[in-house]
Amino acid sequence: MQIGFNAPSGGPLASAEALTRLAQGGEELGFGYATISDHVVIPTDIAAKYPYTDTGEFPASARGERHEQLTQAMFLAAKTTTLRLVTSVMVVPHRPAMLAAKVLSTIDVLSGGRVTLGIGAGWLEEEFVALQAPDFAARGRVTDEYILAAKALWTQPRPAYEGEFVRFRDITFEPKPVQKGGPPIWVGGESGPALRRTARLGDAWYPIGTNPSFPLDSLARYRAAIGKLHGLVEKEGRDPAKVGLAYRVQRYGPEVPATAGDGERRLFSGTPGQIADDLKAMRDLGVQAVDLTFPGTTAEEVVDSMRAFRDQVMDGL
C-alpha cells in the first residue's frame, strides 16, 4: 500500500521553496505520491453546493490563490526522482481534451512515467461559466468523452475520435506517455455516476470518505460501496480485480469523531495504532493507495507531521 500526501496549490505552503521541501521531504520519508488539487479560478459568488461539508459551503480557506494544477505537477516532478504525482482531482471539462492529453503526456514523458490522473466531472458551476467550459449540465458526458479521446491520443498510431463534444482525425500525437496506455486513471467521487464512470473507464476508484451525501466513513460502509462497484464493473464486462482502490483522507487522529454515522468506528480516528489497524483492514479489502492532508503551518511542520505518521503508523503496517 502506498501512502500519499497533499501538496497545497495555494497559501504559504504553495511557495516554490515550501513545495520543494514538502515534495523532497515526502520522497525521502518513503511516501509514494503527492496530490495536487484543481481550480483555475475561484468565483466570488458561489451558490453551488460543495459536496464535502455538511452545510454545502465551500470553505473560506479554499478560496484564495491557486496554482494551475498541471503546471504544479510538472514543477514537483522536476524537483523529485521517484515521487508519483496525482491530480486530485483534475476537473476534466475545464481544459480542451486534446490540450490536456498533450500536457499530461508531456509531464509523463519528462517525469519518467510518474503521473496518475485523478479525474472528476466537477461541482462548481460558476467556475464552468467563468472558464467558458462546456455546459455544466453535460459535464458527465463531456468527462467521459474527453477521457476516451485522451486514450485514443495516447494509444493509437494515427489517433481518431468522433464524439458529441470532441472529434479529430488525420493527426499524429507524439510522444506517447511513458506508461503504456497512458497515465492510470483514478476516478474521484462517491455518487452513482462516479461509480459507473469507474466501472467503464477507471483503473481505480478514488473517493473521499467524508461526503455527507455518500459517506464512506466506516469500514462497513466502505466495504458495501466496494461491493456495489464490483457489481457495476462486472456488468461492464470487466474483471473487478483489475480495478484498483484508492482513498482520500481529509482529517485524521484524535480530533476526528470516534463514531461514524452508522454507529461503527470512524475510519482514521483515534490513536496511531488504531489508524494503522484501519490501514491494514483497508489493505485486506484491496486498497492500494491512501493519501492524507498532514497538519502544519510551515513546510517543516508538515514534514514533521509526515515523519511522525511514518514512524507511528506506516512502520507498523
Number of strands: 11
Report on the biggest sheet.
8 strands, parallel, barrel
The value of Rg in angstroms is 19 Å
Strand order of the largest sheet: 1-2-3-5-8-9-10-11
Tally of helical segments: 9
Return the structural class.
Answer: alpha/beta
Distance, first to last CA: 9 Å
Average pLDDT rating: 97
Instruction: Estimate the helix proportion, in percent.
Output: 25-40%
Dominant shape: globular
Assembly state: single chain
Order of SSEs: EHEHEEHEHHEEEHEHEHEH
**Which percent band covers the strand fraction?**
5-15%
Low-confidence blocks of residues: none
Jot down its keywords.
14% strand, 9 helices, eight-stranded parallel β-barrel, 11 strands, 317 residues, two-stranded antiparallel sheet, alpha/beta
Give structural notes.
With 317 residues, the chain is an alpha/beta fold. 37% of the residues lie in helices and 14% in strands. It has nine helices and eleven strands. The protein has an eight-stranded parallel barrel with strand order 1-2-3-5-8-9-10-11, surrounded by five helices. Helix 3 (97-111) links the parallel strand 4 and strand 5 (115-120). Helix 3 crosses helix 5. The mean pLDDT is 97.
Brief synopsis:
With about 325 residues, the protein is an alpha/beta fold. The chain is built from 9 helices and 11 strands.
Write the layout of secondary structure elements.
Layout: E1 2-6, H1 16-29, E2 33-36, H2 69-79, E3 84-87, E4 90-91, H3 97-111, E5 115-120, H4 125-131, H5 139-155, E6 161-162, E7 167-168, E8 185-188, H6 192-201, E9 204-206, H7 219-235, E10 244-249, H8 272-284, E11 287-292, H9 299-312
Parallel strand pairs: 1-2, 1-11, 2-3, 3-5, 4-5, 5-8, 8-9, 9-10, 10-11
Antiparallel strand pairs: 6-7
Helix pairs in contact: 1-9, 2-3, 3-5, 6-7
